[in-house]
Amino acid sequence: MKKWQDNKGWLFILPVFLIVAFSAIVPLMTVVNYSIQDIFGPGERVFVGTEWFREVLTDQRLHEALWRQLLFSGLVLLIEMPLGIAIALLMPSKKGFGASVVLVTLALPLLIPWNVIGTIWIIFTRPDIGLMGATINALGLTFDHTASGLHAWITLMLMEVWHWTPLVALLAYAGLQSIPPAYYQAAKIDGASAWSIFRYIQLPKMKGVLTIALLLRFMDSFLIYAEPFVLTGGGPGNTTTFLSIYLVKIAVGQFDLGPAGAFSIIYFLIVLLFCYLFYQVLQSAEEGEQS
Amino acid sequence: MKKRYIVLTIYLVIIMLPIYWMLNMSLRTNADIMAKLAFFPTDITFSNYMKIFTDPSWYSGYINSIIYVVLNTVICLVTALPAAYAFSRYNFIGDKHVFFWLLTNRMSPAAVFLLPFFQLYSTFGLIDTHIAVALAHCLFNIPLTVWILEGFISGVPIEIDEMAFIDGYKFPRFFFFVFVPLIRSGIGVAAFFCFMFSWVELLFARTLTTTAAKPIAATMTRTVSASGLDWGLLAAAGILTIVPGALVIYFVRNYLAKGFALGRV
Q1: Residue A143 CA: distances (Å) to CA of A153, B17, B18
Q2: From the list A9, A123, A251, which residue is nearest B114 (CB)?
Q3: Which H/E stretch holds residue A262?
Q4: Within a 10 A sphere around the Cβ of A272, how many other Cβ atoms?
Q5: C-alpha to C-alpha distances, A193 to A87, A115, A202, A206, B5, nearest whole angstrom
Q6: Spacing of C-alpha B95 from chain mean position
Q7: Regarding beta strands A44-47 and A37-41, do their DSSP bridges make them parallel or antiparallel, or are they unpaired?
Q8: ipTM, 2 decimals?
Q9: How far is CA A45 from CA A51, A81, B95, B187, in A?
Q10: Topology of the domain covering B55-261
């Protein structure tokens, strides 16, 4: 697309730049400060160099939290992406009352505050008052996410899939809606099977939105905090202590500013690296679409 | 054809089931909830809702949440509109880098910024004010708004701007009276997502407030940690947090698919 070559653009982005810089750059510098100093109190601090980084990088519990986090994000993507696409394919393609009902119902879980999501699932899965918990126990199986790590994971995965699959479905649905009807007519004339319509028409057309769905789902599941915090509190034991939960435990719970600062920077760099990789993929996907 | 709607209906029922269960709880007293498991509430009571509407420590939470969410949405739209216009229309030094830097903020872990945010906002005396939470939420909402609006603006041919300037429009008049109406569905979609992400966020909102601006979500976590939970009350509070979101979706449902179609969420 043609653009005007003019540095006046900076004037337009100045307010956004200032507000985001106020909230992003100053706190980031503070975190850097924490990570290289030992702070005893106001005005009492010693420069310690990379000591905190060394401490954090050799922290066994951090390694466990990182693997747990990667496993969680991986499982989330493996389940939610195919499920979301399948649901989008089932949705009515014509506008009307039915489509509106489906859209509004699907979007509902996305608009519930994240800690309320946790509350809903506590109420739903408790063995004494929860529909799901009581039903499973009535079948003769013991199910208690406060006692068993495996059950806590199953509950969390169910909650996560329940909460976010609609986002993938809505994105994929929007991608499907952008396919001109002529494509389907042509496929019909050629006698294409449902699978080849999906493989050669629908999937390529959804590539853009699916990349974004993948990106968003990876990021948000990698940063997950409120839902497991409310539902399991990181337990039982440490079985559901994800990176954010562990970080808040160190920073706010134990008030270890130094290690928390170093941890924050490492966490931020990991996310930044993934952001950059995804952004590159996204850019090349967009260029591929235009050519 | 029939089979596909049956599967879809089952899925929608599964989506609604946990929410329905909370609604069911909210219409019963705590003693009734603990006594028996019932799929339908037998003695419907609105006492849980009455308590929330009459107790200031409960209902002020809703008012606080709505104030900072609206503030945040307004700040995001006002600042992001010109920025999105610039990213869409101009080439300038560092434009791509600034755009990427903005997007990284959408994806930075909130937990990382928690302590420094508290320090920063204390320095400015902003702790426990609505504007503090609104500003903190700008960190992830402004990048998102810029991203969404940039997509919609790029959908309007640049020739329209050029024609308007040739016809003698000054920039402000062109921007507010010609351009903004052209992308109003985009503004609606952006406002929806700002509202949504500010409404559902808890970590910043809880950290930056103590009493005067405490959001409803934080009021609820206080109840969770207390001993002797009142499940009915908790469920009623939860149901009430879903209402604003449900209203907003209903109003923007026709734009929703369009916003998603641009793939900018």
Answers
A1: 12, 19, 17
A2: A251
A3: helix A257-290
A4: 13
A5: 19, 45, 12, 18, 20
A6: 28
A7: antiparallel
A8: 0.81
A9: 14, 48, 39, 48
A10: MetI-like fold (1.10.3720)
Residue B91 CA to residue B93 CA, distance in Å, equals: 7
Range of the domain at A273: 34-290
**CB within 8 Å of B232: residues ≥ 6 apart:** B25, B26, B27, B28, B29, B30, B32, B33, B47, B48
| CATH number for position A50 | 1.10.3720.10
DSSP code of A282?
Answer: H
**A185-209 burial: b if 16+ Cβ within 10 Å, else e:** eebeeeebeeeebeeebbeebbebb
| Cis peptide bond N-terminal to A236, omega within 30 | yes
Q: Which of A72, A261, A288, A42 is CA-nearest to residue B115?
A: A261
Cβ neighbours of A167 in B, within 8 Å: 265
- Substitution target from A23, A135, A221, A231 for chain B, most B beta carbons within 10 A: A23
Locate the domains of chain B by residue range. Answer: 1-45, 55-261
Give A45's strand partners: A39
Nearest to A113 among B16, B143, B199 (CB): B199
Give the DSSP per-residue string, A137-196.
HHTT----TTT-HHHHHHHHHHHHHHHHHHHHHHHHHHHHHTS-HHHHHHHHHTT--HHH
| Residue B89 with chain A: CB contacts under 8 Å | 3-4, 9
Taking the Cβ of residue A158 and every Cβ of chain B, the question of whether any pair is shorter than 8 Å is answered with no
pLDDT truncated to tens, each residue of chain A (291 aa)?
678 888 888 888 899 999 988 888 888 888 888 888 777 666 667 777 777 888 888 888 888 888 999 899 999 999 999 999 999 998 887 777 778 888 888 888 988 888 888 888 888 888 778 888 888 888 877 777 777 888 888 889 999 999 999 989 988 888 888 788 888 888 888 888 888 888 888 888 887 778 778 878 888 888 888 888 888 877 777 788 888 888 888 877 777 778 888 888 888 888 888 878 877 776 776 666 554
The answer as to whether A18 is a domain residue is no
Residues of chain A with Cβ-Cβ distance to B115 below 8 Å are 30-31, 34, 251-252, 257, 260
Give a yes or no: residue A217 inside a domain. Answer: yes
Instruction: Give the angle B182-B185-B191 at the CA atoms, nearest 5°.
Output: 125
Residue A5 located in a structural domain: no
Within a domain: A240: yes
Q: Looking at this protein, which amino acid is placed at residue B12?
A: L
